[in-house]
Design goal:
Radius of gyration: 21 Å
CATH superfamily of the largest domain: Class I glutamine amidotransferase (GATase) domain
Helix content: 40-55%
Number of helices: 15
Number of domains: 2
CATH architecture of the largest domain: 3-Layer(aba) Sandwich
Strand content: 5-15%
Structural class: alpha/beta
Length: about 325
């Protein structure tokens, strides 16, 4: 099975967050605060824990996800229902960001949206996190941090402005549904539709049947949507060996058709796109961490330090070490 080349591409300098090494679990963070919504956060955590139980025995590897509950100070955090959750504090251990960071909802979201320390941390960690995903009222926190548009929230989720009274049960049901759907979409992306279906059946047996048709909509997606979904999959798995056949399978296309359609939609070949993603990740590691070049090469999917250095010299006439020095000098100047 041919693997995509990483030796030919133009580099478009757009930001791509860090990606963990192949052997590492994908880091899932769930940010909590006083009076957070237990239901939504709990559903998300249970989805990923269940995916670990289903996937790990078959893969022969470590569980695919590492789930961490976080808060600004750490320790025990009370939910809106008074149940308490133990959390890790936000500190240097999490400076490298996450694959996915969920921001809890709940009655305490409005207060959390005025916490400048929390908002500042979200802005900082955003540059090192692939996706930040709000749960229900967590969108208000992201809006306060400037990470989403508040008008988009009101248009897409009008129920967020009606929390309380007779609508509480309806809101909780929607939170249950939305948080479950978000988690399942990521699980489907990483582990496939069958695992996502099994997770839904175990965690949400009453609602999983309603969610699955939306997860399986690949057959009704446009060609452009299929290609963009494959591109997102390539980004999510760029630290692993990625083959043309695998990417074409994600898009539900033949290899030949996939190559042609990808070039038309993305204006680069799949090989070009993959290299752009990997080099952006390497540049991000060089600028923001002290990791040695060889380890950065492994984490960015470019093989080893010699191979990464060869690509850097070919594309930028710089070594990785020189790039690190110049980028840091520019940011400080």
């Amino acid at each position: 099975m041919p693997h995509l080349s990483v030796d030919t591409a133009r580099i478009t300098w757009l930001h791509t967050p860090n990606v963990n090494v192949r052997c590492a679990a994908r880091r899932i963070g769930i940010l909590l605060f006083d009076r957070f919504g237990l239901l939504g956060a709990g559903i998300v955590a249970e989805m990923f824990h269940t995916a670990n139980e289903i996937a790990a025995p078959h893969s022969g590897d470590d569980p695919p996800y590492e789930v961490q509950f976080l808060s600004m100070e750490g320790g025990s955090i009370a939910s809106s229902s008074s149940a308490r959750m133990w959390t890790d504090g936000v500190d240097a251990r999490y400076n490298n960001g996450f694959d996915i960071l969920f921001v809890a909802g709940g009655y305490g979201a409005m207060t959390a949206a005025r916490d400048e320390r929390l908002l500042g941390w979200l802005r900082t960690v955003r540059s090192r996190t692939r996706t930040i995903e709000p749960i229900a009222e967590g969108r208000q926190i992201l809006a306060a941090a400037g990470l989403v548009d508040v008008d988009d929230i009101r248009h897409a989720h009008p129920y967020l402005t009606h929390i309380g009274g007779g609508e509480q049960a309806l809101n909780e049901t929607r939170e249950h549904h939305d948080s479950g759907k978000s988690a399942l979409m990521f699980i489907k992306r990483d582990l496939g539709l069958d695992v996502a279906r099994n997770v839904a059946d175990r965690v949400m047996p009453g609602m999983g049947a309603a969610l699955m048709p939306r997860l399986a909509e690949g057959g009704t997606m446009s060609v452009g949507e299929k290609i963009r979904a494959a591109a997102r999959w390539m980004e999510a798995n760029c630290d692993r060996p990625v083959s043309v056949a695998d990417a074409a399978h994600v898009a539900a296309m033949s290899e030949r058709n996939f190559l042609r359609r990808f070039k038309h939609e993305m204006h680069v070949t799949p090989s070009d796109y993959l290299l752009q993603v990997r080099l952006r990740i390497a540049c991000n590691f060089l600028t923001e961490t002290e990791l040695p070049v060889d380890k950065i090469a492994r984490r960015s999917g470019t093989g080893n330090g010699d191979r990464l250095a060869k690509i850097f010299r070919k594309r930028m006439a710089l070594s990785p070490t020189e790039y690190r020095a110049r980028s840091r000098s520019a940011s400080q100047g």
